[in-house]
Amino acid sequence: MRRTLFGLAVAVAFATAAQAQVETVVVTGERVSTDTDAPSVTLTERADHLVTKVKVTCDTRDAERRKDELRQTLRGMIDEAKRTNSISLSVGDEILTDFTEKKIDKVMTNDSRADTSDAYVVIRTELNKDDTFDGATQRIKDFIARTPKEGRTEILNDLPFNLGISRTERYRPELIRKIADESKQTASLFGANYDLRIEGMQRTIQWYQSGPLDLALYIPYTLTISPRGGQ
């Protein structure tokens, strides 16, 4: 038993360390309502952020002026985000990292259209218990409207809004307690002549969207109840 617990502790420590390096993980709209791979024991929590990716684009004909206008608008987004406690900027797809001035040139690319340059930036707003989906999306839209656009630069918000969650391993103790309680209750229905076996508790926490701003968290464990002394 000690060896098993030590292995679990090491696995959890590695998972926690890896999660500490990830500020926000995006939960796309593809995982909504239920996840067929999820066990029955889940923990419903409010997401940490509402997230959307915007396209910052400029079609000024002169290449150097176009890039400068795009840079100025991206800097304006960074400055505007610093003025509010509810908006932050990131780059990435499923895993987000902070967007800073050092990354401006890295996110700038040539568009498929001639004389056009683009940059993709993720805007996220922190969620609280009183937020609604409409209210949170409006904060992001207001931020886009406030941001000064240099020259012929535009900020296009045509992509969907998704949820973001940070540091999922903080929920592990509560999830384990729920799994243990549910498993004991299930095993008690079979009586004292049956043994309980739980596997997969070392796995990382998974999640799916269960409401407009809520996530269902779970550990993909398996529960086996078998006759005592059986094979």
Offer a few descriptive terms.
single chain, 231 residues, alpha+beta, Alpha-Beta Plaits, 2 domains, 6-stranded antiparallel beta barrel, 3-stranded antiparallel beta sheet, 5 helices, elongated
Radius of gyration: 23 Å
Secondary structure tally, helices:
5
CATH superfamily heading of the largest domain: Ribosomal protein S10
Spatial strand arrangement across the major sheet: 1-5-4-7-3-9
- Strand portion: 25-35%
What are the secondary-structure elements, in order, as H or E? HEEEHEEHEEHEEHEEEE
Class inferred from helices and paired strands: alpha+beta
By CATH, the architecture of the largest domain is named 2-Layer Sandwich
End-to-end separation = 20 Å
| Oligomer description | single chain
- As for the number of domains, it is 2
General description of the model:
- Helices cover 32% and strands 31% of the residues.
- It is built from five helices and 13 strands.
- Strand 6 (108-110) and strand 7 form a beta hairpin.
- It is elongated.
Task: Describe the structure concisely for a colleague.
With 231 residues, this protein is of the alpha+beta class.
Can you lay out the helices and strands and say which pair or pack?
Blueprint: H1 2-20, E1 24-27, E2 43-46, E3 49-58, H2 63-82, E4 87-92, E5 95-98, H3 104-107, E6 108-110, E7 117-126, H4 133-146, E8 153-156, E9 161-165, H5 172-188, E10 194-199, E11 206-209, E12 214-218, E13 222-227
Antiparallel strand pairs: 1-5, 1-9, 2-12, 3-7, 3-8, 3-9, 4-5, 4-7, 6-7, 10-13, 11-12
